[in-house]
Design a protein that fits this description.
By secondary structure, the chain is an alpha/beta fold. The chain has nine helices and 19 strands. It has helices at 34-43, 94-98, 101-105, 173-182, 212-224, 241-252, 334-351, 357-366, 386-390; strands at 13-15, 25-29, 48-52, 57-60, 71-76, 79-82, 114-119, 157-159, 164-165, 197-202, 209-211, 229-232, 256-260, 283-289, 309-312, 316-319, 328-331, 369-370, 382-383. Helix 6 links the parallel strand 12 (229-232) and strand 13.
């Protein structure tokens, strides 16, 4: 790996070969038969590992050979792993300059919009993020599920790694992503939308690993809890049906999903990438640029049909968990480009609160500045621009 590829996709999933441990099968059942199907499982003594009722999905220990009429097999449950990011020398916030952010801030700072960060978690005590953490208005810390959503004390969101209320970063990737989206304006740092609310839904652990089941759950939780935008700075180099089901669920809830395009130098028109190149229309897929000139980062995936636009992704300075002495670090990857786009979408939705996800996506896309590096490598053929998007 070359040194200038500091983060060979801190959000690219590499599937692990552990079939002896992860042999569970995923089935989708028509919603009107979901409850009766679970009863049928009990009668047949089939071991149920997990379920996602919102999707009509059940995860069982073995393949079913009978009584499966009306069922769809979504495949085997997968374990996915992010590659370890590597910090590089800090630089200025050139990404904000490329977005013409100060002109956009005259119009809005992102007030009134909740952005969910599906990742490794957010350090909710970080001084640049604390004020902007989403707070569940119907929940208090008392060991009781006050709002009846099935999650006890989910003040800032839910940690699907530890199965408890969120607010801790298991790694450092999620805090970096959150800072780019919505850190308050300060001497060292500022997010694209510095007054958004950040919802923390984590499923990737300290080693950068998490299951597709929990990844889907982060999307569903965020959609059910009022997030307007979900940032997914992770991915798998293939189509993952369960994640696609979750994104479609979010679409029905009116939620926009912003996804990193991937760091494999791959044309995703030819080789699918989850979730960035999936079919649901509520996805904005983001490639990475290396400078204000718009040059494609050498690691970035691309695709004239499957990558929507490009944003700053190389040498991005942002927040780090408070356990790190400096509390800031510089990383590279489409993981860093995606939150820039999520922040711009938040600015648009704040400026135009009556828009739906289709209109917000159209505004972000139509305001992209044409760039020769992306003419044949993305849908818009251009670069993310905050000033143009809110103008």
């Amino acid at each position: 790996m070359k040194k200038n590829k500091a983060l060979v996709f801190a959000s690219v999933f590499t599937l692990l070969s552990t079939p002896s441990v992860w042999s569970s099968e995923i089935y989708k059942i028509s919603p009107d038969r979901f409850v009766s199907a679970l009863r049928g499982f009990s009668k047949e003594a089939v071991e149920i590992e997990d379920s996602i009722p919102q999707l009509g999905v059940v995860i069982v220990k073995q393949s079913l050979n009978k009584n499966t009429a009306g069922w769809s097999h979504l495949g085997s449950s997968q374990i996915i792993k992010i590659e370890k990011p590597v910090a590089v020398a800090p630089k200025k916030l050139w990404g904000l300059k490329s977005l013409q952010i100060e002109e956009a801030w005259v119009q809005t700072l992102g007030e009134g919009v909740v952005v969910a960060v599906s990742d490794t978690g957010i350090d909710s005590d970080h001084p640049d993020l604390l004020e902007n953490m989403w707070v569940n208005p119907r929940e208090v810390i008392n060991d009781i599920d006050d709002d009846g959503n099935g999650y006890v004390d989910d003040i800032h969101g839910w940690d699907f790694v530890k199965n408890k209320g969120s607010g801790v970063d298991h790694h450092y990737h999620g805090t970096h992503v959150a800072g780019t989206i919505g850190a308050k304006i300060g001497d060292k740092m500022a997010g694209v939308a510095p007054r958004v609310k950040l919802m923390d839904v984590s499923f990737l652990d300290a080693g950068g690993s998490g299951s597709d089941v929990n990844g889907a759950k982060t999307i569903i939780y965020a959609a059910d809890s009022g997030a307007k935008i979900i940032n997914c700075s992770w991915g798998a180099p293939e189509r993952v049906p369960l994640i696609e089901e979750a994104v479609l669920y979010a679409q029905k809830k009116g939620v926009l999903v912003v996804a990193a395009a991937g760091n494999a130098k791959t044309n995703t028109d030819k080789k699918p990438h989850t979730p960035s190149s999936l079919d649901p229309e509520n996805i904005i897929s983001v490639g990475s640029i290396a400078s204000v000139k718009g040059t494609k980062s050498d690691f970035s995936n691309y695709g004239q049909k499957t990558v929507d636009l490009a944003g700053p992704g190389s040498n991005i300075y942002s927040t780090a968990p408070s356990s790190k002495t400096a509390r800031y670090q510089t990383l590279s990857g489409t993981s860093m480009a995606s939150p820039h786009a999520a922040g711009v979408a938040a600015l648009v939705w704040s400026k135009y609160p009556n828009m739906d996800w289709k209109q917000v996506k159209a505004k972000v896309m139509s305001s992209a500045v044409p760039n020769k590096s992306w003419t044949t490598r993305s849908v818009s053929g251009g670069l993310l621009n905050a000033a143009q998007a809110v103008r």
